[in-house]
Amino acid sequence: MLVRAKTFTESGRRAQIVEAAIEVIAEVGYAKASFTRIAKHAGLSSTGMISYHFAGKDDLLAVCVAEIERVTGAFMQPRIDAAEGHVAQLRAYVEANVALVGEHPAAVRALIDIVKNRAARSAAVDGRLALFEEHFRAGQAAGVFRPFDARTAAIALTTGLDAVVVTAATDPPGPAELARIGRELADLYVRATAPEAEGGTR
Amino acid sequence: MLVRAKTFTESGRRAQIVEAAIEVIAEVGYAKASFTRIAKHAGLSSTGMISYHFAGKDDLLAVCVAEIERVTGAFMQPRIDAAEGHVAQLRAYVEANVALVGEHPAAVRALIDIVKNRAARSAAVDGRLALFEEHFRAGQAAGVFRPFDARTAAIALTTGLDAVVVTAATDPPGPAELARIGRELADLYVRATAPEAEGGTR
Amino acid sequence: MLVRAKTFTESGRRAQIVEAAIEVIAEVGYAKASFTRIAKHAGLSSTGMISYHFAGKDDLLAVCVAEIERVTGAFMQPRIDAAEGHVAQLRAYVEANVALVGEHPAAVRALIDIVKNRAARSAAVDGRLALFEEHFRAGQAAGVFRPFDARTAAIALTTGLDAVVVTAATDPPGPAELARIGRELADLYVRATAPEAEGGTR
Amino acid sequence: MLVRAKTFTESGRRAQIVEAAIEVIAEVGYAKASFTRIAKHAGLSSTGMISYHFAGKDDLLAVCVAEIERVTGAFMQPRIDAAEGHVAQLRAYVEANVALVGEHPAAVRALIDIVKNRAARSAAVDGRLALFEEHFRAGQAAGVFRPFDARTAAIALTTGLDAVVVTAATDPPGPAELARIGRELADLYVRATAPEAEGGTR
DNA sequence: AATGAATGAGGGTTCATTCAT
DNA sequence: CATGAATGAACCCTCATTCAT
């Protein structure tokens, strides 16, 4: 590769600021992640520097989200793709997401906090919601999920997953424990969505 | 009891401020719920009034949480108590919580927003988490829940419930739709926690 | 009068801030009249105090304009009303406006500077322009002004008047000199608008 | 002159910046004409370029003024020179200045805005003022103007002219309308300064 | 018990200017 | 010649809290 494309997170300072922002958000939370704190964390002398590199706070946050998704996607995507069938993919998604905590705890915590607090819902959160919903519908059509309300399930399960991930990320346990938690949660979700056994549940 | 004791949320002004705070948080969100906005909403001429009646923002918020829990508890508790057995109570809790949206949408939204944003975890959230966890453990001992990780399940299911509730509270549907959503979510949770059927995982 | 109505410039601090703002604008000009400077001039410890009393910079400026107009109107109106006929009133307006410099030099300079720089044209400037235009039209109908373009004349003569006033206000001369300048300018305007003499001008 | 000397506004980049600055000032006004905006308008990647070519903001502005005067002078001077006599020249100046709006509306608006806002009075504005004053005195000596206060008249008439020009430049009308306005204004000024007719005015 | 003015820190953003490359 | 990152001050505004009355 002769010419390396310059992605929008690169250019040195920009990347540095984004990284600092992610760490600060992971540390003190979205609400207290001010430019001042981010600048200090990044070793910058003034907040003006951030405004110089980003159009505003929303812009910075959007870039942070994009960067985190890039990093986490690189970790999760192969694991999900390796699974075959709707059920296995659901399990793979959940387990990969929990395992991700071991690799990028700050990024994971920051992402969830940003998404939770942003007024304008990012494409990220809505995208994942739609993805789950669609996945459930497709699985139902294929007969591997029972005919529950796909939207309600998508909301409950994605946010439940987030909560487990955040809890784990707050004080990251070892890989084995993470794997166990991932398996537990996947079990929960697989059973919640599984087709009726003979006798029913109620 | 002939004379009702004056609870600590009463005394006129205090109650008025708490009510205003809850409504403001429900309307504009925790982050933008400043004393100024709350005072304006309560018809107060200055924020000094709030500081006079409450030790600080944390105090006000704590009282708000307590008040909301009092109100919501009055709605939910009878419904939960009416259910017999761990499974039925789980279902009752979930359905009551969703139904609550129809009665107190502002309170419900405010509570979840406060709990989500408070640095210091309130006794409320931890209490409910412990409650669920304990409920799961007891049910497992009784053989009506399968032997999953009670803590992970408690985290995932309580927050999933919250998310469904918040979504519903944002634009509250009619009672019938709320009942349907409640049933859907309860189904999901009951199945997730149900003991193995004869043939494995279904 | 038993109960004195509280006008919107009163209440102590508000009036003090308005006064300080007017003086600062007169001194350093609209562009450099920051809250910081105004607060310092008013003996306030922080700019927050100004924001506490006024909704924003625009609000403060609007109140300044209103206050100046109140003060200047009290000076000019009787003098204008005392004149009879369109020509005499034109002369009276011009002379009163120039004489005003001797009474309220800062207010006069501030007003013109605000009006000149405000993006949103105030009712003040447009009002005066319309007033002049209407006055010219009425005088033309009465045959005491010649049939010139009333709008162009209104623009040129009001701003010319402003310029003379500002120049005089920069280093206010004595009343006699002000009276002379007022008379000179009034002469200019009266002649510019006078009906044709027998021989014509061109 | 075979080889044209390179004036100080030329040299490519400088001229480009000056042109951009004039356009930006005409568009958004003096107050909001920052280096950032000018650089963006000029297609420059940073404001450093401007600081590199000009000693400071005042310098840039001074060069802008000089450039505008060069351009406008080229339009107005021949028209003024073509007129004979003090009265005719006054008329020619006014009419040429208004007509100029049709040719260089941006330049005209920018010039007046700069002159209005600059703390340090430019040689330009003072020069024109002195020019008018001198012209009036000379005409008075020649008996073609009446013996008014030359300075007061110069102030009032030049700024009145500016105001008419700015108004016209804000939404430039066609040449015919401009010519009419110019004639109207010139009439006003010629009459204001004309010697007494037999009967007097007062 | 209540008021409302005052405080001082901190929020994000824009600015003209500088300087190493 | 030219770049663009860096600077540091200033901008208006909002905040929770305090305190004399």
From TrEMBL, chains A, B, C, D:
Residues 17-62 form the HTH tetR-type domain. It comes from the Bacteria. It holds the Pfam family TetR_N. InterPro entries: Homeodomain-like_sf (IPR009057), HTH-type_TetR-like_transc_reg (IPR050109), HTH_TetR (IPR001647), Tet_transcr_reg_TetR-rel_C_sf (IPR036271). PANTHER family: HTH-TYPE TRANSCRIPTIONAL REGULATOR PKSA, HTH-TYPE TRANSCRIPTIONAL REGULATOR RUTR. This is TetR/AcrR family transcriptional regulator. Keywords: DNA-binding.
